[in-house]
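User: structure tokens for Ig-like domain-containing protein, please.
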Amino acid sequence: QSFPLTKNENSLSLEYSLSLFPCIFLSGGCDGALISQWPECLLRVPSSATELHCYQNNTEHTYMYWYRWQKDGHLVLISVSIEGNKPTYEEGFQSGYEAKRSGSKKLSLTVESVKPEDSAVYLCAAS
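Assistant: Done. Predicted tokens:
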């Protein structure tokens, strides 16, 4: 799923790296739960693996999501994790990505082999 994001005076201004080392920027937030993501910023050599982490403080939110905000302004769903079930992956993310749920509050995302097109803002959400 892809969602266009509009930019206004209150939006986040982003600059993307055009180097051979893709940079993965992270940001978090949602309504009704405190979302924490780490690390805040990563710089990885292409073909290396990297892991992103997300924690939410509301045990009533059994759904957790990873999104990627791409350079073209689209917000793309990567994976959905429902507590007690295996994560599902959207088209284009079935291989090379692994979401791992640890209890009801933590979700990690592993990118197995970073590519330049992986340079983006990664967002975690819970509902």
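User: Anything notable?

Assistant: DSSP finds no helices and eleven strands in the chain.
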